[in-house]
Amino acid sequence: MSRGLLDGPSVDGLESEAPKLTAAFSARATVARAVPTVSDPPDAKASPVVARRQIVAVGGGKGGIGKSLSTSSLGICLARRGRRVVLVDADLGGANLHTALGPNPPKLSLGDFINRRVSSIEEVIMETGVPNLGLISGAHDYLTASNLKYFQKTRLLNRIRNINADYIFLDIGAGISFNIVDFFLLAEAGLLVVVPEPSSVENAYRFLKMSFYRHLWSSARGNGIRAVIEQAMDEKNQQGIRTPFDLLDAVERKDEAAGQYLKQRARTFRPRLIINQTRYPEDERLGPSMASVCRKHLGIDIDCLASVQYEDVVWQAQRRKKPFMLVFPDSKVGQSLEQAAVKLLSSSQR
């Protein structure tokens, strides 16, 4: 069988490779979050024109790694460039995106939409004080929101997809539940935030693997093929499926046409990494290392959007309850973050 883009060896599981990458990173306590750093300053007059609505999901395998700060900061950058941006706090179990923007919890939230206390999702979009930037706060008042029923999730995803904006950012929760993964897969652009700590790296691999399998499951035609994918989601399955390569082989043995189709769909899963809170030279190498391992053992072609440095100015802004990009817009980190936003603008044209 020809593997094409998905070429890779048979391995005993991605988790066997993760310790090799995490060995160089000792667990370090962190007291602040940083934002993406790149080298060249942006040219605000040369912004590409957005051709269509773009949904960007910001996720990660665990909490406390800077998802909300990255989401809010990138959203502010794009809004300041004249794009209409709506930030959605899709962390249904622990909504806190509003704290990264400064305002107190709004009166209306996703809980009101989920519970049908409002008729449209647009009614829960609040102003942030930043022109062109709106916020949909998470369901902080709805205790069962993290366990949405299927029809509730479908309705919510459909309404989010149709929000009138140039960019819709989803700040999703931690973990690998189907609800969380489905929010990640809703987006055309998926950003995975990782910090250089063993637990974060390993959880990121699990998140990528589960998201990849879920992506294939959603693309599969027929219950028989879906059943094979569901078996693969159990790492101890009796079919000997341990890697995505094993899964695609199993599907092709069952149905050659279905196997070829899933290979094509596999190529459309291309998340990007944000390596957050870097402090040492070896931290800077984590992004390329993870990208290499994912291509080799998952068949996922990913790249690193930005490396992220630890900066005191970030937590200083948080203590003042002000968005970092508004308090320190001319800082080195602020200029770097603008360039990361330019990358998103450029990628939306492809």
Descriptive account of the structure:
It is a single chain. The protein is of the alpha/beta class and 350 residues long. The protein has one domain: P-loop containing nucleotide triphosphate hydrolases (Rossmann fold, 3-Layer(aba) Sandwich), CATH 3.40.50.300. The chain has 15 helices and nine strands. Strands 1-9-8-7-2-6-3-5-4 form a nine-stranded mixed β-sheet, sandwiched between helices. A hairpin with a 5-residue loop joins strand 4 (125-127) and strand 5 (133-136). Helix 7 (198-219) packs antiparallel against helix 8 and helix 9 runs antiparallel to helix 10. The longest helix has 22 residues, at 198-219. The chain is globular. The two termini are 31 Å apart.
Key descriptive features of the protein:
Rossmann fold; alpha/beta; single chain; globular; 13% strand; 350 residues
CATH structural class: Alpha Beta
Straight-line distance between termini: 31 Å
Low-pLDDT regions:
1-17, 20-51
Helical segment count: 15
CATH H-level homologous superfamily name: P-loop containing nucleotide triphosphate hydrolases
Describe the strand arrangement of the main beta sheet, using strand numbers. 1-9-8-7-2-6-3-5-4
- Tell me what the CATH architecture is: 3-Layer(aba) Sandwich
Number of domains: 1
CATH topology group:
Rossmann fold
> How many strand units?
9
Work out the oligomeric state of the chains in this entry: single chain
